[in-house]
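Exercise 4. Each item below gives a protein and its sequence. For each, produce the structure-token representation.

Item: DNA helicase RecQ (Paenibacillus hodogayensis).
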Amino acid sequence: MPAQAQEKARTILKTMFGYDRFRKGQEEIIAGVLDGRDSLAVMPTGAGKSICYQVPAAAMDGVTLVVSPLISLMKDQVDALNQTGIPTTFINSTLTVRELNERFREIAAGKYKLVYVAPERLESERFVRLLEQLTIPFVAVDEAHCVSQWGHDFRPSYMSISRLLDVIRPRPIIAAFTATATDKVKDDIVRHLRLDRPLRVTTGYARDNLSFFVLKGVDKKTYLADYVRNRAADSGIIYASTRREVEECCAYLLKLGVRAGRYHAGLTEEERARNQELFLYDELKVMVATNAFGMGIDKSNVRYVIHYNITKNVESYYQEAGRAGRDGQPGECILLYAPQDVMTQKFLIEQGESDESRKTIDYGNLHGMVEYAHTTECLQKYIVRYFGDAEGESCGRCSSCTDDREVADVTLEAQKIFSCVARMKQRFGITMTAKVLRGANDAKVRQFGFEQLPTYGAMRALKEKDIVNLINVLVADGYMKLTDSQYPVLTLTAEAKSVLEGKEKVFQRVTPVKRADSRIAEAGDEALFEKLRQLRKTFADRDKLPPYTIFHDATLRELCIVMPVSEEEMLEVKGIGRHKFLKYGQPFLDCIREHAAGTKRG
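Answer:
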């Protein structure tokens, strides 16, 4: 990037967004865009993807088009950008005909630097004719994984994005952004969006401020009650698989006096929008929801995400869990695992409208999530490796890394399991294998003659569910694999053969795991932080904006530590640009001064 363009980008970052330096990967992507290169950026939630297209858009002549499937994200980002002084708008189905006509006139008149649109809008001939009149140097595609059938959230409307290259003249720079993408998905993005020799930037998938926990065998409602009540001041999201479970969890929390809301597709659009707004404005502390909630919810101060049930794949889990700690402050991500939840996900796959090839992909993705629930390795490391990044150290914070149970040698048990799978010709699943090892008097066991096997009853001293659990752990640790089908079959890997031959030992932890109930570390003066939060809410209510679009929690925390006494000192705090200071800064300075004076008097 030429020095002049680089300096302009850094000036925009400081004056508009209030940050002194770019985060990892941001400057490289922005440099590529300003240098005229197509780009593919894979950055985890909270890593600052939006800055990568918002800064170039502010630096370029003309209007930048941002394609996003997320109506709620459009409104949030438009509000936030207008707060920074960058004129921005959106076009989507929430607008009336009159509003739509007015937006079209304003866009044609060059009023805006960025325009957010849903991919379906690109199929509108009227909109396409508008694009032909505009100077559009840059098109940013958010949630770009939606273009791939291998992705976890394929949307056919994304296939129409590439037609922009045939409409806009001269050809715009295209940049694709996503938080999660396997190698197959990345290749699909490049092909379907017709990216030209793109700059590829992957900043890594690890979220250093998040702690991951998998809890098995807990009473879910009791755990939920204890956890949420202990964090009454924190915002959190609880995800459940079905509408019924959302309703039950929400009603349970409300009875406990928790300010909880609900969100699922069975509610009216008005109620969903209302509950979402209350959550964004911190009027509701907890949102209980299906996966219909959260895509594009740019709420920065979510401190925890609890999954009441297992998700359908690792991509969905990491995106949903990643809604904690978007402000860079600590967050906790907790999965409450129960085997019956896997059956619910299989039912949802089987009842879906996808063809058989897509269902096969979905079953394979579900197996990856089951492995996550049973792995003994670092949970963050498992996720990073799932997305193809072999590098990375153990996080030291997750339920695997902090597991202080005693380690036992289970090589003999593993050998019995592997031998049984081999003698059953690697043609059966976990449940049947466990029944044979348990020595069950089962009709199907007798039907196949498995009671004659030497391994029949070889583990009769254990309960069937304990054998099933051990098999799942061995699958998660790579000794066996499951086929991608509705009724997955166990197969042995080379690692299992090494154990059978006595070349490798297998170890497992054997005492109950501690619950994830550590408090999230907080920094700064709590009394001042609460005063600043209340002041922020006053402005948010006045301007009808979510509080975090004024200042993030992380910015308030830094104010509590730095305790600025002048405009110059306040502008050094991350997240405070000149435009925001002029609008809100002085009352916050006054609040800090008054608090400091009161503390001295006390």
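Check: The longest strand covers residues 210-216.
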